Amino acid sequence: MVLLEHPGLPPEEARPDSPPEGKEAEEEPKCEVLHVSGKGKGLFARSDLGAGQLVLRESPLLLMPNEVYSADDMDRIERWLDRRLNALSCERRAAFFDLSDCRSPSDDKTVLGIFFTNDMDFGGDAALFPDMARANHSCAPNADFVSRLGRGVQDLVATRDIKAGEEITISYLPAAKEGSDVREVRQDYMRQWYGFRCCCKACNMEVSRAGLPTPCTEGA
Q1: Is residue 66 part of a domain?
Q2: CATH of the domain at 60
Q3: Minimal CA–CA distance to 167: which of 5, 12, 32, 21?
């Protein structure tokens, strides 16, 4: 799961672009989903964004109670998912099955693999947000998630200034690991849980400082 709160974010009431309670801002989307070489798809800023600015607000497609999510019985979890998916519209089911699956050993996607690859913590439960799931990982991200449980939505908020056309990234690492573990530890975590080698600028910079050849580039 992706851990949400970022210590650098301003409090909710101080953030720009937070509409009054009961009113959602009606404006052009601030981000778009584009294909990324070596990553599949990613989120990109459509215009310049300031630190603390709301990038995207989304309601969960699926919200799995923790008592189900933490069960040892994978059949029970799969049955839960099947029932909820069958109740969705064709368009929303398609949005689910279009997401990546890094948990399945073959190229065949599974319901469990898709959910466990893309779910996020939402007030202690596991939620899936199809648009936000497109945000790729970076060890030096420029955005983070904030849960607004009272509104039943998840916010994606810029944690620094983002230029138009720049990819919007988050950290998939547990909060305790962010900014503290060495590159090898982060790399091991990404390989174990997400099945890829991180090629973000932070990882490559550590390699360069050590005088070693850069193993890869972002998008490679």
Answers
A1: yes
A2: 2.170.270.10
A3: 32
Stated pTM of the model: 0.74
Query: Do the domain assignments include residue 44?
Result: yes
86: domain range?
A: 12-174
Q: Tell me the C-alpha distance between 193 and 97, whole Å.
A: 20
On whether the CB atoms of residues 57 and 154 are closer than 8 A, the answer is: yes
Written in H, E and C, the secondary structure of 48-81 is CECCCCEEEEECCCEEECHHHHCCCCHHHHHHHH
Q: Give the gyration radius of the chain's Cα atoms.
A: 18
CA distance 155 to 149: 10
Residue 149 resides in a domain = yes
> 117 in the Ramachandran plot: left (φ > 0), alpha (ψ -120 to 50) or beta?
alpha
Residues 22-73: tens digit of each pLDDT: 444 457 899 999 998 777 899 999 999 999 999 999 999 999 999 999 999 9
Are 40 and 159 in contact by the 8 Å Cβ rule? The answer is no
